[in-house]
Amino acid sequence: MSHVWGLFSHPNREMQEIKRENESVSHHYTHHVLLMAAIPVICAFIGTTQIGWNFGDGSYVQLSMFTGLYLGILFYALMLAGVAVMGRVIWWMARNYPQRPSLASCMVFAGYVATPLFLSGIVALYPLVWLCVAVGALALVYTGYLLYVGVPDFLGIDREEGMSFASSTLAIGVLVLEVLLAAAVVLWGYGYRLF
Q: Residue 184's closest CA among 34, 29, 48?
């Protein structure tokens, strides 16, 4: 958790410090990913069960506590899986680099890069759809920035090559995010009708 502020205040220096720490995946998940991924889940649970989704037309769709809990657990699992998938994608894409980092390092890197997306979940306390989308888009832009800043040092490559690698990784990350969002919407719709 000590890196969260640094990722926003001085991302270059913080990414170098993260690389030097050589953190294990279990430590990283226990002390960062599990906690950060809980932020959007808890906020969405509170917002959707107490206020309800506001679609901007004055109507609200409020979830029951059971449905909110059920969907929150699924949403949490999807986010944890998303970080693991992106770590594996980064590791796979780095296969041709001479200083290829370990799979564990790639998963730690993916977890820290996802930090802005996790923090953007705070806005789900008041689940106004257009606001959630706008804040999520800003978080995605900053996540891309963290990729562009962190990849060159992480892989030991120059900035130009790092830009290409980060762009490819971001494109795959957006695809993974879209799949996770689609899964969440399908599960939410299914859960809403079921419960």
A: 48
User: What is the 3-state composition of the chain as percent helix, strand, coil, each rounded to the nearest 5?
Assistant: 85, 5, 15
Angle at 53 between CA 172 and CA 29, to 5 degrees: 45
Instruction: Measure the CA–CA gap between 139 and 141, rounded to whole angstroms.
Output: 5
Q: How many CA atoms lie within 13 A of 115 on its CB side?
A: 22
User: Considering Cα of 62, then 68, then 74, then 79, what sign does the dihedral take?
Assistant: positive
pLDDT in tens, the chain (195 residues): 678 998 999 998 998 888 888 889 999 999 999 999 999 999 999 998 898 877 777 777 888 898 888 888 988 998 899 899 999 999 998 888 877 888 999 999 999 999 999 999 999 998 888 888 899 899 989 999 999 998 888 888 888 888 888 888 888 888 887 887 777 667 666 655 544
Residue located via tokens 């900053």 = 142
Residue whose tokens read 């926003």? 8
Which DSSP symbol is given to 64? Answer: P
Which of 46, 75, 79 shows the shortest CA–CA distance to 188? 75
Query: What pTM value is reported for the model?
Result: 0.86
Non-local CB neighbours of 34 within 8 Å, separated by 6+ positions: 80
